[in-house]
Amino acid sequence: MATRIHWLQRSRRNGLTLVESLVSVTITAIAGVALFSAIGASLGASYSSLNHNVGTGLTDQMLEELSAVRFPTSSDTRPHSTANRKDFDDLDDYHNWSDSPPSSKNGYPLGQEPVTILERYLITRPSLLIPDTSFLDRLSREVTVERIRHDSSSGWVVTNDETGFRRVTVTIKLAMTTDTDSRSHTISEASRIFSYVPLSP
C-alpha cells in the first residue's frame, strides 16, 4: 500500500494538469498568431515595394521618352486624343495621353517587343524575360503637360499663355483587377519641368 501511494505521489509531480496544458496551448497559439501576422506584414511590405519599383521604372522610362521630344512652338497644335503615340512630335502632343497596359512607342506591350540582332534578325525572347502579363494588364500610365510660368511670389503657376516652360507629370496607377470598373491607386508619380532653349547661331 505504501508503494502504491508513493507511486501516485510521484506521478502527480511528473505530469501536467489540465490547466497547465490549456495555458501552454494558449501561449503557443498567441505566439503563432503573432508570427503569422509578422509574416503577413512582411509580405505586404515586399509587395508594396515591388509595385513602387515597377511604377518608378515606368515613370522614369516615360520621362526619358519625353526628354527626347522637341519643345513645342506656338504654331504647333495638339493632336486629337485618338492620335497614335508614335506620331507625337512635341511635348504638347502628350497632354492627357494615357495607355493601359503600358506599351512602347511603337505599340508593343512592354516586355514583348521584338528583339533583333543588327536590326535584321529577329530572335525569340527567352521566357524568363517575358513579364507577367496579368500584372502589366492592371497598370496604366497617364501624362499631363501644363504650360507654366514663374511667379516671384508663388513660384510656378499654370497659365494658358504661351511660355517657354512645361511641367510634365507622369502618373502610374495599379488597378485591383483587370475589370474596367476596378478601383486603382497611384503607385508612382513624378514631375519634370522642361524649358525652351533656342539654338545658338
UniProtKB/TrEMBL annotation:
Keywords: Membrane, Transmembrane, Transmembrane helix. Residues 84-96 have a biased composition (Basic and acidic residues). It comes from the Bacteria. Residues 70-110 are annotated as: Disordered. The chain crosses the membrane at residues 21-43. Residues 72-82, 97-106 have a biased composition (Polar residues). The keyword Lipid metabolism does not apply. This is Type II secretion system protein.
